[in-house]
Amino acid sequence: MSEPTPRVCDTLAEVRTRNPLVHSITNLVAMDLSANVLLAVGASPVMAHAREEIDEVVAAANALVINIGTLDAGWVDSMEQAAAKASELGTPWVLDPVGVGATRYRNEVAARLTAQQPTVIRGNGSEIVALANAASAGATRGVDSSIDSAEALDAARDLAQASQAIVAVTGSVDYITDGSRVIAVANGVPEMAQITAMGCALSGLVGACIGVGTEPLRASAHAIAIYGVAGELAAQHAHGPGSLRMRMLDAFTQLDSETLNEMASIDQ
Q1: What residues are designated binding site for ATP?
Q2: Hey, which bits of 146-250 come out as E strands?
Q3: Residues annotated as binding site for substrate?
Q4: Least buried of 45, 182, 197, 213, by fewest C-beta within 10 Å?
Q5: Annotated binding site
């Protein structure tokens, strides 16, 4: 008899029970929010980027998250070292190619990391299109998306097939694909886009969910749904982006299985 398909609440319960250690080499803007989101859902963050300890930290971690938002030559070396170590050990890892398409250097770094076999690639529409080489240079505008997730779905499929990674393209509706199967998630509120590092912190949550052993396609969809539901709950009592950010952290800690299953909008 086949194992039952895990529900979104099962993945969150696994994170809370197993407390996965998520090693994040993320950008300077995102560190605080990413660490606090991971703590709020029940995971353990570690933000280590010194090359001298990378191998040991990756070996101890349940998942790795690499975010190229604020590039620095030394950090790039650490990112590539961490990705290579994760691939060697079979540790699942997430690539967040922030701003890819904006500069030649960023494109080169993102391409090298993509070649290191990430488990999941998560980005906005412009980033996924740029990474898949499906659009002309200049499609990415800073870290904001100028291409809707639906427009980027074909590029996401192509990128998934070429990289053998799960590709999650986030936007007004989020799409997660392995190159053939597609899961759509329709949770969240537009005001989340007004808070810096929201997408970066989401990539951390994807890392936590793949770090507890849930199949990566489903784990990515579950992480995105959990994140969006927390945003919807927080928005009910928020008065602007500052209080939305704060209330989202509270929502993660208070989210129960019944509410999550009722509110999660996952189409597969």
Answers
A1: 122, 170
A2: 166-170, 174-177, 182-185
A3: 47, 197
A4: 213
A5: 47, 122, 170, 197
d(Cα 36, Cα 9) in Å, to the nearest integer? 20
Cα separation, 206 vs 42, whole angstroms: 13
Average pLDDT, the chain: 92
Domain range annotation of the chain:
8-267
- CATH architecture type of domain 8-267: 3-Layer(aba) Sandwich (3.40)
Tokens of 153: 């779905």
Angle, CA of 235, 237 and 241, to the nearest 5°: 55
Q: What confidence tier does 203 reach under pLDDT thresholds 50, 70, 90?
A: very high
Tokens representing 49 are 């980027």
- For residue 225, how far is the Cα from the chain centroid? 12
Q: Residue 262 and residue 116: Cα distance in Å, rounded? A: 38
List, edge to edge, every strand of the sheet that includes 266-267.
44-46, 21-25, 63-67, 93-96, 120-124, 166-170, 174-177, 182-185, 266-267
**How large a percentage of the chain has pLDDT more than 70?**
93
pLDDT over 90 for what percent of the chain?
89
Q: What are 86-139's pLDDT values in tens digits?
A: 999 999 999 999 999 989 999 999 999 999 999 999 999 999 999 997 333 434
Work out the burial of residue 256: count CB atoms within 10 Å of its CB; fewer than 13 is exposed, 13-18 middle, 19 or more buried.
exposed
Nearest to 155 by CA among 225, 84, 197, 101: 101
